[in-house]
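Class prep. Protein, please:
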Amino acid sequence: MLVLIVALGIGSAMACTNLIVGKKASKDGSVMCSYNCDGFGFSGSLFYSPAGRHAQGEKIAIHGWGPRHEGRFVDQVEYTYNVVGLMNERQVTIVETTFDGRLELVNQDGLLDYFSLMRLALQRSATAREAIRCMAELVEEYGYNSSGESITVCDPNEAWIMEIIGKGPDRKGAVWVALRIPDDCICAHANLSRIRQFPQQKKRSYISISSRSLKEINRPEVECVYAADVISFAREKGFYNGSDADFSFRDAYCPIDFENVRYADARVWSFFRHHASHAEMDKYLPYINGEFDKCDHLPLWIKPDAPLSLRDVQNDMRDHFEGTPLDMTADMTAGPWGMPVRPLPMHFQTSDGTPLFRERAIATQQSGFSMTCQMRSWLPNDVGGVTWFNCDDANMVAYVPLYCCITQVPDPFRPENNPRNEFSYESAFWMNNWVANMVYPRYSLMIGDLRDAQRELEDYYFADQDSVLAAIKELTPADRQSYLNRKSIAYADRMMKRWDKLAKFLIVRYNDQVVRPAKDGEVVPGRYSTAGYDQPFIDAIVPATGNRYKLKEVIERRER
């Protein structure tokens, strides 16, 4: 577990994406959120923590990001909930993205990093509101040592966005604000602070409370909670000198520039654009292009044109700006076959010193794992909460349903079966990477075959959910848990077998730069074809190379 926590801390900073859907913005009334956990520093696996009762005086060792915090402890609580991935047995889900913000506010001596904070809250909270209170009280008591974080906190009825940043060396606590997302709206964050102004007084329809009144957080009319000193601390540090009413958390604690907007909020913009008028969302292109005098923010949330399904959210997690001015498949930087991934670094330059950058989309090759989480208030918790999970790039994997009550992690997702530095056929991370890294270089040629396998699996999983709901009606709670364990294990096993078949099919079909005929996922006898380059790449050849590749007789004929 320590290795995983350390890897998450190193790898995911400035990397992840969350999409959030309120229950009235979803087709079936579920609350949904998603998480691409992106970083080159780790191989993905599924976190698991069993439920348990604990003796008075029991302590939990907190390792943080490394040995600096060895030998430090947090008081345990009487009961901790079962946690699968980042959802607990009460369907509470917590996911995050790092925005860093003002790095001078990192307190290395604070005990709790963001991942430890999220994990403790999941173990201790029955609702999203309880999780927010838990995290606020924990950082106040034990200190916070990460940089700025945007945190999604959901349960079967509500979705919240919470943003938090430390107070710097020798200041134990943190400043933060949390807002309830309207039920009929969608929201997102992707490595940039998203909360600007927030309500600071009582209204007829809602109440905004400071951390001095955290015990009131369970009142349903409370829709905004914030640290009591979130504004005064900004004034003290010289980050803000205006009125309370005009205070913007983002502008004080995470000032924007072209890079963090283009690499981060562009992902939010693309998600919104999938579910709102293109013309309306394209009004924000000046902001995405760094023209802040024309526009300096995106809306925190929007009401979608139509309710979203879980499959909509899964497809949104596979986005590379397709169909927008930022489309990563549509120019010569995508190479001969429209590859939507790009190598690092983010910055590079021409031989004459002209600085350039690359786009950063929601889907990316360095994802350790991806999940889409569904919380359903009308079902028993054990089957109502489902984490659709897999390791590696969301665009290149099939999401596998795992129920929030399970007590056995499927073998392909166990940490010990996903070594970082050694390929394993038992590893979901390595099987998915095997396929993905064959497809990336010849993307437009091969992605159709991957999509066929992806749809086959996901169609099966979705179709099977009705039989699962029917089966549990006849089972006791204990028998339901055993049944859902078996189901989750069988789903993961089915994915691994299908991906093994896909990998072997791809190497045969596309061997030596030709394309062999295929039917129903099998290579069949017949003459191979030569697909050639994508047209945008062909059109870029002459401007880049002049006459070098022009057929000589064509040139001579034109000259005559």
Summary: The two ends are 74 Å apart (CA to CA). Confidence is low (pLDDT under 50) at residues 1-14.
